[in-house]
Write a structure and sequence with these properties.
The structure is a single chain. The protein has one domain (4-152). Helices cover 26% and strands 29% of the residues. It contains 4 helices and 10 strands. The strands form 2 sheets. It has an 8-stranded antiparallel sheet with strand order 2-5-6-7-1-8-9-10. The chain is globular, with a radius of gyration of 15 Å. The relative contact order is 0.21.
Length: 163
Amino acid sequence: MDATEIYVLCRTRSKLIANVFLDSFGKSRTQVAEEYPYPEFADEPEITFKNPSELIDRLESDCDSSYSVYWDCHSADEPEQVMLFFTSDGRMIVGIGGPRNSIETELLKIIAIVDGEYGYVTSGSCPPDSCDEFAEIAKASTLPNVVEGRLRGLNTDGLARPS
């Protein structure tokens, strides 16, 4: 899998936004996990969901729970993976791994689809569990990023520049 990952912080935690993102970037997706214990890392889960849709229903209403959900994609025109991260402060982060198009194109497309506030590009690391930490990482990024809904980090020649 390509190590490039793009993450975007959504303004709201919503199943509708999650589904629009997933349907836009992962039409051919298959869930990575067979089941989803809730809470995610509990020794004795309250419940175990068999599909991510039921889990997302729960996470939409239980805003102080964090969870990471992954799908693999199987189409040549989609990223290799799509991801949702529910943060402990009630927000949601969407992500793609192994983008097929230019990073800037994908970042802008995600921002538009999910009404993203912050976004950044990374290699092989998961996003943080809070919107404040996410915003700080985006602001400090020297790669293409989005801060307060605006793309930053490119010169006119298309090269990344320090912000």
